[in-house]
């Protein structure tokens, strides 16, 4: 099911020079993908061997870049495993132009920014989201606090205290965290949340990674069915689609015009660039049982997103089993949830 509002640009960034923060991380390298400077004091830079991860806590707790520097004789080149942010994106505090950002306290859209819960209408219109159908929760649009950090890991924290005077505010008190770390060249992210409200709270979480997209990019994943969507990118029905079989075999990012949720995901997906002899495999813990693939036609964007719930799950019909199929979840007072995501690069 369609999940995302996206930047409208369809042109790749202009090739320029990236200056690395410290010689102990990496010396300067020519990077044709971004002008990001990792000496920006608002960023947290993690390193492990030749791998660097750049985190932007103030931009929705986002990841700004994840890359390797490959040394070749007297030169070196940068291999991005996620699409990197630019200085302009950081200056604009735009999570949609980061490499990836967290999704709390729900993923994807909510129809008309409202739903019924526990006998009352939850109206999220006017919370600053800017979309007719509330999108991705709110934590991605707020700064996160930096906690414990090491050379290769950082903990980020976010707490939402509802404001009854603020129109459209999420009316539940909760705490969320991310532990982001490099384990060798692999990226590991643990997402966690706890309901601090006196009553129950509907809930979902995920991460929103963008990948480099070329004419040869291939996505491989095992899924069972696809949520078909209407013109508002909201679910209509769950059923077969050519992309289901194509993903099993290895689907070109250009094969379909996609912005859809997939069910029956086995929690592993590989994004490969065969002409570059490299790939990255994303794996997830339960309950990240749903996958979003955003691969629009004639565009440079590509997202393959692990999520706990499908689009508009809070409005799913309880009687016909749609809630169960959509990942609808409720946290009890004080209940906590935690699950991990991993990205493992491979160079042939």
Short description:
The protein has 348 residues and is mainly beta.
Describe this entry's structure for a reader.
The protein is mainly beta. It has 2 domains: 16-97, no CATH class; 102-347, Distorted Sandwich (Beta-galactosidase, Chain A, domain 5). Helix content is 5%, strand content 42%. It is built from 3 helices and 28 strands. A 9-stranded antiparallel beta sheet has the order 12-13-14-15-28-24-23-18-21. The longest helix has 8 residues, at 242-249. It is globular. Mean pLDDT is 89; it is low at 1-30. Residues 1-36 are annotated as: Disordered. It comes from Paraburkholderia hospita. InterPro entries: Aldose_1/G6P_1-epimerase (IPR008183), Gal_mutarotase_sf_dom (IPR011013), GH-type_carb-bd (IPR014718). This is Aldose 1-epimerase.
Oligomer: single chain
Count the beta strands.
28
According to CATH, the fold-level topology of the largest domain is Beta-galactosidase, Chain A, domain 5
Q: Tally the helices: what do you get?
A: 3
Shape: globular
Any descriptors?
single chain, disordered N terminus, globular, 28 strands, Beta-galactosidase, Chain A, domain 5, 348 residues
Blueprint (SSEs and pairs):
Elements: E1 16-18, E2 29-31, E3 44-48, E4 51-56, E5 62-72, E6 75-80, H1 87-91, E7 102-103, E8 109-110, E9 114-117, E10 120-123, E11 134-135, E12 145-149, E13 153-160, E14 174-183, E15 186-195, E16 201-202, E17 206-207, E18 218-221, E19 225-229, E20 235-239, H2 242-249, E21 251-252, E22 258-263, E23 268-273, E24 278-284, E25 290-295, E26 303-307, H3 322-326, E27 330-331, E28 336-347
Antiparallel strand pairs: 1-2, 3-4, 4-5, 5-6, 7-17, 8-11, 9-10, 12-13, 13-14, 14-15, 15-28, 16-27, 18-21, 18-23, 19-20, 19-22, 22-25, 23-24, 24-28, 25-26
InterPro entries: Aldose_1/G6P_1-epimerase, Gal_mutarotase_sf_dom, GH-type_carb-bd
Region (Disordered): 1-36
Organism: Paraburkholderia hospita
